[in-house]
Design a protein that fits this description.
The protein is built from 4 helices and no strands. By secondary structure, it is mainly alpha-helical.
């Protein structure tokens, strides 16, 4: 496919249309973009650590990690609850099997 000016405009129209359609359905991509900065900071922190910039790498990793945890906090509580229930059930049923 040859990329010229008309194709660029067509691709832009497709992206804008898909964005509005997803927003209408209720699948806005704003949430994904809000996760982009913490993930970028974590990635830059890892790169900094690999390149020997330990202090800067650790700080970027720490800031990105804390920011990501804050943004995903609404998911952490239900996931933690399910993990605790499964772990508790495994302890109860393991004791009954061995007795």
């Amino acid at each position: 496919m040859k990329l010229d000016r008309n194709n660029g405009i067509a691709i832009l129209l497709i992206i804008v249309g898909a964005y509005f359609l997803l927003k209408f359905i209720g699948w806005g991509i704003g949430g994904l973009f809000s996760l982009l900065l913490p993930l970028l900071l974590i990635g830059l922190g890892i790169i900094g650590l690999k390149n020997g910039r330990n202090f800067i790498g650790f700080m970027l990793l720490l800031i990105g990690g804390i920011s990501l945890i804050v943004k995903l906090a609404s998911w952490l509580a239900p996931v933690l609850a399910v993990v605790l229930i499964i772990y508790g059930c495994s302890i109860v049923f393991k004791k009954r099997v061995h007795e």
